[in-house]
Amino acid sequence: MALILKNIVKKFNSQTVVQDLSLKIEDGEFFSLLGPSGCGKTTLLRMISGFETPDSGQILLDGQDLTPIPSNERPFRMVFQSYALFPHLTVGENLAFGLKIQKTPKEEISERVENALNLINMLDYKNRFPETLSGGQCQRVAVARAFINEPRVLLLDEPLSALDKKMRDHMQTELRAIQRKLNITFIFVTHDQDEAMTMSDRIAVMERGYLKQVSSPHEMYSSPANAFTASFLGDMNVFVHSGQKVFIRPERTLVSLSPMASDLVSYSGEVINKLFKGVFWDVYVRLSTGGVVKCLVDSKNEDMMEDLTIGKEVQVGYSQVYAHVFETE
Amino acid sequence: MSSSTKNAKNMSFISLIPSVWFGVFLLFPILMTFLMSFQKRGTYGGVEWVFHFDNYIRVFDLIYLKIFWKSLLLSGSTTLICLVIAYPLAWALVTLPQRTRSVFLLLLIIPFLTNMLIRIYALKVITAFDGPFIALLVQMGIEVDRFTVSQNIWLVMYGMVTTYLPYMIFPLYAAMDRMNFSLVEAAQDLGACPRHVLFQVLVPNTYKAAVTGASLVFIPCLGEYLIPDLLGGAKSMLMGNLITEQFLKARDWPFGAALAMILIFLLMIFIFLSSRSKGGASGKA
């Protein structure tokens, strides 16, 4: 009981956008496809939905090959980046669109529309037209229109990118709550690493058509499989130790005015900037060996921050335990 | 401050020009026609200044009603044919890649901008009873009655459709181009088959453009006299021709004026209906 992508290849003209990609997505999972723009994540989603056909490879749902099945017969629903709400229909009619096509009885349609509107807290908006709604409301209607048909999988194409930051944060929690309530698979495309980390059960990171790593947000953050995921997901400091690049998270990078303990790898440097972020200070240090690293200092550490003035000579270090070293690709 | 109000005064003078233009060249002639429609024909042409309704009573003669009906039927079917051709054509245009699209648009625009008289006359010459089209048919050994091919109602219809088709395509093309294409994908995604996509997404979202296109085709068609005259000959008398004949041949200006007033009245009904149906749609959207 899962959605399996097998050796998917997709070319546009002569350019390969998805390169021999295989992936298994479990039932009820909140799965994110994460990557910079142009990495092939949207193309992959459109192949799952049936709007694009892979050049080779298979898309299997419970063992059945979906590739020859047209998009309107796949048990998937898509939430579009532009919402794509029908402007000539009310919110209620938008939700009922798919059900009417399936010739669902009238009473059942109105009951399910009410339930769906209830779930997104928009019961009062049933007879409003989309152009009278805010961005966040359009977003919720678009999601409701997709899940009302009880699809096996909901496909979301950067659905939050048009919202402002506050609304986006709110919708992240709300989408996650809706997914838990419905218990259906969500495949969520995004280029925003924070968004992917906050919401997902698992994340697949893509770069230039290749799948770089698939794992839970926590695992991906604490043990990235390669240099790309290491620097794409969260901040990373790069040290050079005995000719090798060593990746360390800023929160694992220590800064001190006195010499470091002998079991730590330490460098000397100079404070070039410090930014107050509330809970932490971001302290930027230029290493004497070259390069700038970022360290986090707890803002409760007031005495230390007073001494850490810009231009001050400091020691920066890390424990080998938290170091990530990758084979050069 | 004072200079800006002065400018505004100058501007209001400029905006007066089109009003004067409309008054002198549109409203005044229509008023004249209106007044003339109640007069009596002079014995040697011209107008006798007597007020009566005889012209309007004469309009309801069966001969003229038939001509009215034929005109309405021809304009209506031309509009319908244009709509049926233009709708898929406009859709094909918006789904073409940008470069090929401009080529096809150019192919539509060139004949559209070519003088109508030249185009229609060319068609008349080509299909004339001693013209190249019939010569070709004879060469191929096909037996035809030369006079049924050269001038008939179907040829008139063909001329009307080719002349007015762009007026239907362009508003539809603009509306479809403006429409968010993901609406179509959203409908497909929700399980809609092509027929559903057409009638539940495309048509409701391009309905207003279709009404605009229909007005742009129907209104000039109803008053058309050049195309029926050149391509239909004496066999197809339409309202436009009837009015022209009253003024230029029969020399019955008051009756021609009455016919013209009826035509204007019919057009006004049509414009009112189409603008109301558009208003209704926008109220809902």
What would the keywords be for this entry?
heterodimer; A: 329 residues; alpha+beta; Rossmann fold; OB fold (Dihydrolipoamide Acetyltransferase, E2P); 2 domains; six-stranded mixed beta sheet; elongated; B: 285 residues; MetI-like fold; two-stranded antiparallel sheet; 2 strands; 1% strand; globular
Write the layout of secondary structure elements.
The complex is a heterodimer of chains A (329) and B (285).
Chain A lengths: L1 E11 L2 E12 L3 E5 L6 H9 L6 E6 L2 E2 L10 E4 L11 H11 L4 H14 L15 H13 L5 E5 L7 H18 L2 E6 L2 H7 L2 E6 L2 E6 L1 H6 L4 H6 L4 E5 L2 E5 L5 E3 L8 E12 L3 E8 L4 E7 L3 H6 L5 E6 L11
Parallel strand pairs in A: 3-8, 3-9, 6-7, 7-8
Antiparallel strand pairs in A: 1-2, 1-4, 4-5, 9-10, 11-12, 13-17, 14-15, 14-17, 15-16
Chain B lengths: L1 H35 L3 E2 L5 E2 L5 H6 L2 H34 L2 H16 L2 H12 L4 H8 L6 H5 L2 H26 L3 H8 L4 H30 L2 H7 L6 H10 L4 H32 L1
Antiparallel strand pairs in B: 1-2
Helix pairs in contact in B: 1-13, 3-8, 3-10, 5-11, 8-10, 8-11, 9-10, 10-13, 12-13
What does it look like?
The complex is a heterodimer of chains A (329) and B (285). Chain A is α+β, with helices and mostly antiparallel strands and 329 residues long. Chain A has 9 helices and 17 strands. Chain A has a 6-stranded mixed β-sheet, with helices on both faces. A 5-stranded antiparallel β-sheet of chain A has the order 13-17-14-15-16, with no helix packed on it. In chain A, strands 2-1-4-5 form a 4-stranded antiparallel β-sheet, with helices on one face. In chain A, helix 2 packs across helix 3 (106-119), helix 2 packs parallel to helix 4 and helix 4 runs parallel beside helix 5 (165-182). The radius of gyration of chain A is 24 Å and the shape is elongated. With 285 residues, chain B is mainly alpha-helical. Chain B has a domain at 56-113 and 151-284: Orthogonal Bundle (MetI-like fold). Chain B has helices at 2-36, 54-59, 62-95, 98-113, 116-127, 132-139, 146-150, 153-178, 182-189, 194-223, 226-232, 239-248, 253-284; strands at 40-41, 47-48. In chain B, helix 3 crosses helix 8. Chain B is globular and about 70 Å long. Mean pLDDT of chain B is 85; it is low at 280-285. The A-B interface holds A 49, 51, 70-73, 76-78, 80-82, 84-88, 97-98, 101-102, 129, 131, 145-146, 149 and B 180, 182-183, 185-193, 196, 200-201, 204-205, 284-285.
